[in-house]
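debug: dumping io for the single-chain case to check the tokenizer round-trip. Nothing else runs in this session.
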Amino acid sequence: MKQGRNTTAKTEILKLINQSDVALSHAEIQLSLEGLCDRVTIYRVLDRLTEEGRIHRIVNIDGGVKYASCTGCSAVHQHSHIHFSCQKCKSVTCMEGIEPAFSLPAAYQISEVNFTVSGLCPQCA
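debug: decoded output
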């Protein structure tokens, strides 16, 4: 029974994220699922989907975490594109195709990159 619920939860969470134009927080996902599963299951599913490379985790400008679907990932799974965080409506959008440039000294090894730019989205400007 637990495995079936988990599979249903995983399917529904992935579907929800894939259909969204903006990144979603845990709370937004939980609200949309309307009691399908508990908050701990949602966290576990989000972690699993992130590990599988099916979604990516975005740390918002205010430290909040949101999740978005993976599109256009190469063989090397990375999300070095910019995320835009609207200061008014709080939406977070992946800005595909816009990759910032930076360099670090040779002694540093990068494991994760998160670029978030804040301002007003087109709907709020």
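debug: round-trip ok. The two ends are 48 Å apart (CA to CA).
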